[in-house]
Amino acid sequence: MDTKSKESYLLFRLHDELFAVSVHKVLEIIETGEEHSITNLPKAPESISGVVNFRGNVIPVVNTRLKFDLEDYNEGEKFVVIVLSLNINNQEQIIGAQSDKVVDVIEIVDEEIKPVPDVSQSYNSDYIQGVIHRNGKFIMLLNLEDVMATQEIIELKKLSSEVKENIETETQPS
């Protein structure tokens, strides 16, 4: 009998890097397009792409490439939005995270997870809870609460609420 602790992770690509997040935090994967377009927000922080409608709620979308100091998306470049349920400041926050592509769902055994090497990297390693090496590639396990628990997200939630209120006001009959 196998007593090793396993957890499922959603594996996705950003630029040339592989990242993984616990599937327990993933609500949905949205293919962007006409039905799910991102609405830009004036005065939003640079790493915020805007907001998107998710099941009738306005949620912020983080440009994870910019968040990790990677090259930004080119106009017209395809991506998906991973909708996440996170516990930020003891409150559930629904947030979208842009990703180039969802690759797979994988099982990771706790013993595979290695500490983050202490080297200068192009992204903030504080956001990485560990690294695994599989099939000749490194996969970084994200600590999403740390990635998203920033002042910009708090400000963006406030902006998102204002956008939702404006939409509701505009659609109410006079």
Chain-wise SSE layout:
Layout: E1 6-14, E2 17-22, E3 26-31, E4 48-54, E5 57-62, H1 64-67, E6 80-88, E7 91-99, E8 101-109, E9 128-134, E10 137-142, H2 144-148, H3 151-171
Parallel strand pairs: 2-10, 5-7
Antiparallel strand pairs: 1-2, 1-8, 3-6, 4-5, 6-7, 9-10
Organism: Plebeiibacterium sediminum
Domain CheW-like: 6-153
InterPro entries: CheW (IPR039315), CheW-like_dom_sf (IPR036061), CheW-lke_dom (IPR002545)
Task: Supply the key terms.
174 residues, alpha+beta, OB fold (Dihydrolipoamide Acetyltransferase, E2P), five-stranded mixed sheet, 3 helices, 17% helix, 43% strand, globular, CheW-lke_dom, CheW
Sheet with the most strands, sense and barrel status: 5 strands, mixed
Q: How far apart, in Å, are the first and last alpha carbons?
A: 67 Å
Q: Which band does the percent of strand residues land in? A: 35-45%
The outline comes out as globular
Number of helices: 3
Radius of gyration: 17 Å
Q: How many beta-strand runs? A: 10
- Provide the low-confidence segments as ranges: none
Which CATH class applies here?
Answer: Mainly Beta
What is the percent of helical residues? 10-25%
Which architecture name does CATH use? Beta Barrel
The CATH homologous superfamily is termed CheA-289, Domain 4
* Overall tally of domains: 1
Q: What series of H and E elements makes up the topology?
A: EEEEEHEEEEEHH
Mean pLDDT rating:
81
> What is the CATH topology?
OB fold (Dihydrolipoamide Acetyltransferase, E2P)
Provide the spatial order of strands within the biggest beta sheet: 8-1-2-10-9
Structural class computed from helices and strand pairing: alpha+beta
